[in-house]
Amino acid sequence: MRTLRCLEAMVTLRVAIVGSGPAGIYTAEALVKQSHDPVEVDVLERLPTPYGLVRYGVAPDHTSIKSIAGYLRRVLETPGVRFLGGVELGADLSVDDLLSCYDAVVYCTGAMVDRHLGVPGEDLPGSVAATDFVNWYCGHPDVPPDAFSLDAEEVVVIGVGNVAVDVVRIMAKTADELRGTDVPEEVLDRLAASKVKRIHMVGRRGPEHAKFTLKELRELGELLNADVLTFPDEVAVSDLTTLSRQVRGNVDVLRSWSERKPADRPRRLEVRFWLRPAEILGVSRVEGVRLERTRLEDGRVVGTGDFETIPADMVMRSVGYQSVALPGVPFDPRSMTVPNVAGRAADRQYVAGWLKRGPTGVIGTNKSDAAETARTLLAEAVPGTATARLDDLLAARGLSPVTYEDWLAIEAAETALAGSLSRGERVKLVGRDAMLGACGRVARPGGAS
Questions:
Q1: What is the chain's percent helix, strand, coil content, to nearest 5?
Q2: CA within 20 to 30 Å of 241's CA: 8, 127, 203, 384, which one?
Q3: pTM surpassing 0.90?
């Protein structure tokens, strides 16, 4: 009997993680490190490439943050961890498929779409999501390089978080300033042809409520190609003593910009506060934004009835991300998350990252979040529950996932492309066909890869 128990204890726990961004890869790492028994982790990704927002969300000129990919890479190279790209839940596999092939499944698909403003005119041509713009300049295969032409001379960005800061910084810079980054060559050409002259970044609350970090804010003030300005009455704060050090720093920087005199740089960035969008104006496309002056009343933002119109050829909303429901997975449409207790969503099903807690925190926040989910999973998962093998199931359907070795071939092709263009360490390939071609594959019609 004792020998039988020992053999049972050595049965390998097989876990599938859906999503290869930081949350997914940190979960894989936590499972391997925390488990006292053998564990095999397959990290499934609908794209041919791993790393999620580290590859397709971090601004290309933020190379220090993008360096976290080196850490994630080491996790994917850990014995017992396997990357399988080009495999999509809902299109290629169902939840039942995964539960038949694994003892447990962890969903880590993040928050993939933007929140809407809910104002008239939001659907006019020229009104776009910041998430699409970020995906565009980051070379995401879901957004083609011709998605943005930047023929607008005046742009309004709604939102005062780090994503909004990234967006306006990329628009304000010259193409030459981005030439050493991994921006796709096709995107760089369009940035070089940009007609943008004036950018307005608008927040509905005051400067003390803005969500950007001090480091990112200061970067705006150092732009060589744009005058960056604020309005004294909009950045005035009556009492700084109750604010955190970080927020005081933000307010000090914003107030200092109100004292600047324009230096006639090619572009101008105005950072505005206490304004909320009431309507996006235009007939056949965006022509401007009607904004209402706001104030706080019992901690709530309320309108004052005082309106201002900013002419604009493009409006970009950057008011947050939200997750989307996965086919067959429990989902709360109010919180836009998978309901869970310490990461447990249902029998043998778990969740981590933004899909678990909402789009909060920074990349590193996902590490402790993943560790909690891994503890919950390891405390109750039963090895040997799975009755099938994913490799057999995929082969029977004629599907061949992108392997980690294939991903390394894509990386090598991007490095070679950068060398041929005399552009930094890497230039991203654009589109699934180019990426799959780099590893000797052909995209399947209508397939995830």
A1: 35, 20, 45
A2: 203
A3: yes
